[in-house]
Amino acid sequence: MPQLTCQDLTLGYDANVIVRNLSFSVNEGDYLCIVGENGSGKSTLMKAILGLHTPISGKILAGDGMKANKIGYLPQQTSLQKDFPASVREIVLSGCQGRCGMRPFYNKTEKQLAADNMERMGIADLAMRCYRELSGGQQQRVLLARALCATQKILLLDEPVSGLDPKVTAEMYQLIASLNQEGITIIMISHDIAAAIKYATRILHIDEKIFFGTKDDYLKSEAGRHFMLREGGGNNDCDF
Fold this sequence. Notes:
Elements: E1 4-13, E2 16-26, E3 31-36, H1 42-49, E4 57-62, E5 72-74, H2 79-82, H3 88-93, H4 97-100, H5 108-120, H6 136-150, E6 154-158, H7 166-181, E7 185-189, H8 193-199, E8 202-206, E9 211-214, H9 215-220, H10 222-231
Parallel strand pairs: 3-7, 3-8, 5-6, 6-7
Antiparallel strand pairs: 1-2, 1-4, 8-9
């Protein structure tokens, strides 16, 4: 049974339709990259999956006991969020809020989960540091640790390497790949077509004609050939 299924989705705001007839499914262990033009509906789709945006029509079905508050999410950061005055430990712990229910405090298990995920992301030594004092790469590791406190099943990542230098970008991609190899399903909006082709098992291309399938089939498709030719196959300045 798929972890997530989208059936005939139409997405948009008010009377402005962004994308129509969008259907795809995600299985456990998939690494799905979502690509397409700027404004094609990629971030809107991610918000719909998280329950933050209501589709105009269609259905989003969750399997394997998945719920929106059990999905780990790493959003694009605004300048204000990057300057957030909280400790690393506090931010990572906030990923456990969905586990607390009505409890106004974190229990021992949740505190240990946060500690384990900071260790997993290589930021345990930064636990008491102020988040806004960290580098971009360190901040992304903090947000990944936070997302992992919400789930061990599926991560939604919205352009997770945006603004990072090439070395840190490569490290982040390796980190995400290792999480996928451990069995965590990855759904990632990517602005880097070369990385999408390298790491993804499946590609969702949102455009006038929607493509969903394996990356090998994508490379053979008209959409894939046209898109990669136009974008140079790995131009990091383009916005997918």
